[in-house]
Amino acid sequence: MNTLEKTTVGEYVAQDFRTAALFSKYKIDFCCKGNKTLGEVCLTKGLDVHQIQSEINVILHSNSSVGIDFKSFSPNLLIDYILETHHEYIQEKTPVLLMYLDKLCKVHGDRHPELFEINNLFKISAIELLNHLQKEEVILFPFIKTMALAIKNNQTIQQPDFRTVDNPIAMLKHDHEAEGDLFAKISELTSNYTPPNDACETYKVTFAMLKEYEQDLHKHIHLENNILFHKAKELEERFSIL
């Protein structure tokens, strides 16, 4: 097995986010389960690792724009980006989707009973996700910024109640995986967000919004699991905690 096969899918996406589209095409989870190597994933899914490696190489050596290099962001800048881009997105879109899904159940539920399960899964996801954002905003993110400031000013800080960042990170990663599982079920129930032939405009808009919501969530989780959490651990290793 060569180096490419040993690289995790999360590392590929952290290196070049354009690979995310390739992994999505093959239904490879690069965010919640991004710690698996390409070789492991291909073996599990029965995919040709050499073919996918070839496609990855084409992307990595392409001259087209890579886009934003999130790995180059400072921890503080990355946190601010996640808050302003992804946390605000969730806060804005979640109540709209809850309203639309309730409406679809009332109008189309008799002909499409799967809508009730989709609605229920999204409600579970929404509750858990909003609680998850609070954990990030109240517990981990402020401590990361505290560590960054302490390093800048050559200071020490008190050990937090959670003792090490590994503990909240493990909790948050567990939440991420649970969200990924919920949306995998929603995607399956919606036939990958394909509205039925008798769908009205609200039906089509709702499914399009659900698809966009999942895509945003994947990028959100990727930025945390594969980049920010690593930066948090590196910060913790750089200074003394009293």
How would you describe this protein?
This protein is mainly α. It has 9 helices and no strands. The longest helix is centred in the middle third of the chain and has 39 residues, at about 115-150. The model has no long low-confidence stretch (mean pLDDT about 90).
What characteristics describe this protein?
242 residues; globular; 0% strand; single chain; mainly alpha
What is this entry, summarized?
With about 240 residues, the protein is mainly α. It is built from nine helices and no strands.
Topology:
Layout: H1 3-6, H2 9-15, H3 19-25, H4 38-45, H5 49-60, H6 75-108, H7 114-152, H8 166-189, H9 201-237
The oligomeric state of the chains shown is single chain
Distance separating the two termini: 44 Å
Rg over CA atoms, rounded to whole Å, is 20 Å
Which percent range fits the helix content?
over 70%
Tell me the overall shape.
globular
Describe the biggest sheet?
A: none
- Topology, number of strands: 0
Structural class: mainly alpha
Bin the strand percentage: under 5%
